[in-house]
Design goal:
Elements lengths: L8 E3 L7 E4 L3 H11 L15 E4 L14 H14 L6 H11 L3 H14 L3 H14 L4 H17 L4 H15 L6 H13 L3 H14 L3 H16 L5 H11 L3 H14 L4 H13 L3 H13 L5 H14 L2 H14 L4 H13 L3 H14 L4 H6 L3
Antiparallel strand pairs: 1-2, 2-3
Length: 377
């Protein structure tokens, strides 16, 4: 870009990012005409009457025309269509971006998932939001949003809002017409993780009817069989889970107790009982329930983590550490388990070790509120 034709710039009102709208410079016409002759840009024609949005560099208040780049132009267009998907020139800006950068969907999706894996959930969701502006209504993007929110909810289990957002994202996937089988399949596993077995069963049964991936079909059939075999779609189980999750532990314990009278070999029932007892501070009873869950086949990181919390509160710090270390061996980046190891180290007076655990948590998830509260650097 150069100064041979000065650009007329007007700031965008009421926008957080610094976006300027520029008249089309002569220096841009040649390059875009070259791009539009390629496969990705076929049929795209530059319209000199439509202003070009440009995103300024962070902290910049004015545009240095010598610094004007394709990246700034594309960033400006992407921001505009993300914030105003039905705007006057939104379709034109989408076509412009895709003509210049035809691989943007794959590139930005990979970046979002990498950011999510690294614990930067806010940026990951922001990137997905930008793509949703470029590709409105694309089911794959809604699924990626749900997966990122699910990962955030799992990493920050103490934040009910994160889980609620993940749940709403999956509900939106289930409401798509026509149905989107990959989203239905993943929703099934999301509901399984949160012990909403009735909805999980419905998702897997629907996938068996609509899905075309043989491996996923086999997994879905196994999940339906597992749920029905152990009566996990029983109304009592669902109601007990809801009560305990909503801090009505006493009522939930009563309901899960009735369920266990009918199905005493279902480890999920003993886990739910232990969870409710732990919430009521009945540590010894919780320990017995979680150990029963382990005995019946519920040897999961969640079971051992919950058992460790009860052991910790009952004063069995060595037992708690053993359970947490076993859980961590199975799930090496579970920040909930690592945080609990840090809290246990604090209780036993090992401040240096505790700082190491909390530092590790923040390396995985820089925004983790538990580690931030305990780790002072």
């Amino acid at each position: 870009m150069n100064r041979e034709n000065p650009l007329e710039a007007q700031p965008t009102p009421n926008r957080k990012e610094k976006i300027l709208f520029l008249s089309v410079p002569e220096s841009l016409k040649g390059p875009i005409e070259t791009v539009s002759r390629g496969p990705a840009g076929a049929g795209f024609t530059l319209d000199p009457t439509i202003p070009i949005p440009v995103e300024l560099a962070p902290g910049a208040e004015v545009l240095d025309l010598e610094e004007l780049s394709w990246e700034m132009i594309l960033a400006g267009m992407i921001r505009v269509v993300a914030e105003e998907p039905e705007g006057t020139n939104a379709l034109y800006y989408r076509r412009f971006v895709l003509a210049v950068k035809p691989d943007i969907l794959a590139e930005f999706t990979a970046a979002a998932l990498l950011k999510s894996h690294n614990g930067d959930y806010a940026l990951a969701l922001e990137i997905i939001g930008l793509l949703e502006g470029l590709f409105p209504g694309l089911p794959a993007l809604l699924l990626n949003r749900a997966l990122i929110l699910e990962e955030q909810a799992q990493a920050r289990s103490e934040l009910a809002e994160a889980q609620d957002l993940a749940y709403k994202a999956y509900q939106s996937l289930l409401e798509l017409h026509p149905p989107f089988p990959p989203g239905i399949f993943n929703a099934g596993f999301f509901f399984m993780k949160h012990r909403n077995f009735e909805e999980a069963r419905d998702c897997f049964q629907t996938y068996l009817e609509l899905g075309d991936d043989p491996e996923k079909q086999e997994q879905a059939a196994l999940m339906v069989e597992e749920i029905q075999k152990h009566n996990l779609d029983d109304a009592l189980f669902r109601e007990a889970y809801t009560c305990i999750r909503e801090d009505k532990a006493a009522q939930g314990i009563s309901q899960i107790g009735t369920f266990l009278e009918r199905h005493p070999q279902v480890w999920n029932g003993w886990f739910l009982l232990g969870w409710g007892l732990r919430k009521l501070g009945r540590w010894d009873d919780g320990i017995r329930a979680f150990r029963k869950a382990l005995e019946l086949g519920g040897d999961t990181g969640d079971t051992r983590n919950e058992l460790a919390l009860c052991l910790m509160e009952s004063g069995d710090w060595a037992g708690a550490r053993k359970e947490l270390e076993t859980a961590l061996w199975r799930d090496t980046e579970n920040v909930k388990i690592i945080s609990n190891l840090g809290i246990l180290a604090l209780k036993t007076g090992n401040l240096q070790e505790a700082a190491g655990f909390f530092r590790t948590v923040l390396e995985i998830d820089p925004q983790d509120p538990v580690a931030q509260a305990y780790f002072k650097g």
